[in-house]
Amino acid sequence: MKIGKTAFVGLGVVGEYRASGQTRAEFCRKRGMPVTTLDYYLRRDGAKGRQKLVPVKVVEEVKPRQEPGSGLTLVTPGNMRIEIGVGFDEEALGRLLAVLERS
Length: 103
What we know:
Strand content: 5-15%
Number of domains: 2
Number of helices: 4
Distance between the termini: 54 Å
Shape: elongated
Helix content: 40-55%
Number of strands: 2
């Protein structure tokens, strides 16, 4: 596999550019790289920054309020519990029960 001049681009060139204090044109000219290539990697690096995951703390778990008579709970002989709310899909429940009966 032939590695050309552009192979170094993915190896931290964005960090090198930012640390250099040079303009984009100066930085690219000294490395023999098109400015558009640097711009591409700068955009990719910026997109990574927007997609960072941050830790969150759940303060209180809010459970849906279930009013009396608003649904039903089915407990199977194996102690499997199925809670069904108002307006449930009867066909979906039928398919679920059929699967459970086969198990």
